[in-house]
Amino acid sequence: MILSVAVFCGSRPGKNSLYTHHANELGEMIAERKLKLVYGGGNAGLMGVVANAVIKNGGIVTGVIPEILREREHQHDGISELLVVADMHVRKKMIYDACDAAFVLPGGNGTLDELFEMLTWNTLSIHDKKIILLNSGGYYKHLISHLTKMQQEGFLYEDWKKSLMIFDTPAAIFSSMDANTHQSLP
């Protein structure tokens, strides 16, 4: 059963307004389903949009932010709980440990780092948490093609589709959750 979700996404909003729209919609749906949000602790970009939508709709939000990013990502002082940690490694581990599943929205290098670390940990059986990629406006279509190429070329130990589910909208994510015994993904 999924009670707590991590969201990994950009600390910038990106150029397509659909990214912000989907981040807001996802946050609303997280709160509506009474799921706890665990994320990077910032109030900037898509991170801030998701957290603000959860808070606005009565949800619970825990942020985990490294000391070095408190100013850069504009630490969010309006969330339920903000944990300040030593570095990025501690941040990622705390977020992974606190979630039952992870949603990955559009973002930059940090978002990809978080995605690939979780995929690697699934492959190594460190955890088996569901990872949901929100492919807003086709943002991740090239990455999906590359993952397929990596598999075709024999560089992956298992089919990446076992660990990574792809959806085009937040509504599609939650439709899948609702269709599979309330809050547990297939």
Mean pLDDT: 93
* Gyration radius, in Å: 15 Å
Measured by DSSP, the beta-strand proportion falls in 15-25%
Distance between the termini: 11 Å
Strand order in space, largest sheet? 4-3-2-1-5-6-7
- Tell me the overall shape: globular
* Share of residues in helices: 40-55%
| Count of individual beta strands | 7
* Structural classification: alpha/beta
Number of helices: 6
**Could you name the ranges where pLDDT drops below 50 across 5 or more consecutive residues?**
181-186
The largest sheet, given as strand count, sense and whether it forms a barrel, is:
7 strands, parallel
Question: What's the short story on this structure?
Answer:
The protein is built from 6 helices and 7 strands; from the N terminus they run βαβαββαβαβαβα.
Please tell me about this protein's structure.
The chain is an alpha/beta fold and 186 residues long. It has six helices and seven strands, in the order βαβαββαβαβαβα. The chain has a seven-stranded parallel beta sheet with strand order 4-3-2-1-5-6-7, with helices on both faces. β5, α4 and β6 form a beta-alpha-beta unit. The longest helix is centred in the N-terminal third of the chain and has 16 residues. The radius of gyration is 15 Å and the shape is globular. The termini are close together.
From the structure above, extract its key features:
186 residues; alpha/beta; 7-stranded parallel beta sheet; 6 helices; 7 strands; globular; disordered C terminus
Describe the protein's topology.
Blueprint: E1 4-8, H1 17-32, E2 36-39, H2 45-56, E3 61-66, E4 81-85, H3 88-98, E5 101-104, H4 109-123, E6 130-134, H5 141-152, E7 164-167, H6 170-179
Parallel strand pairs: 1-2, 1-5, 2-3, 3-4, 5-6, 6-7
Helix pairs in contact: 1-2
